[in-house]
Design a protein that fits this description.
single chain; about 120 residues; mainly alpha; Glutaredoxin; two-stranded antiparallel ribbon; 2 strands; about 35% helix; globular
Length: about 120
């Protein structure tokens, strides 16, 4: 699975947070029912197993009528930008524009993602 990407997200967060990057994890049980039953258990799992200290929201809906307003907005940006699986990543600039998205198969610390982040932080 992609769960190991939590460690890579932590790496990216540590590398760029002093330059203004915010990594925000948004768990959801809408994609395969793989999350723990409570947001607290999800966060604890990530902290204990992957040492994350970046922010994490409560678990939210990402599809259909129960989608969180953020994911409704993402869907309006284009179908390919909506998550198809866990660990789909969005890059949003300082003005709140969705400028890039990365599929689950793209690691957060991949050269492609790092270049995109660096381009926004310049």
């Amino acid at each position: 699975g992609f769960t190991r990407q939590y460690a890579a997200l932590q790496e990216v967060w540590t590398q760029f947070r002093d330059r203004g990057l915010v990594v925000l994890a948004v768990p959801s049980d809408d994609l395969g029912g793989q999350e723990y039953e409570t947001s607290e258990k999800i966060k604890t799992f990530c902290e204990v197993n992957y040492g994350i200290d970046f922010p994490m929201t409560e678990a939210v809906g990402i599809r259909g009528d129960d989608a969180h307003p953020y994911y409704q907005w993402v869907a309006e940006q284009g179908v390919m930008k909506s998550p198809r699986w866990n660990f789909h990543k969005h890059l949003i600039d300082r003005d709140g524009n969705l400028v890039e998205w990365f599929a689950s198969t793209t690691p957060p610390n991949s050269p492609k993602v790092i270049r995109a982040i660096e381009g926004l932080l310049e």
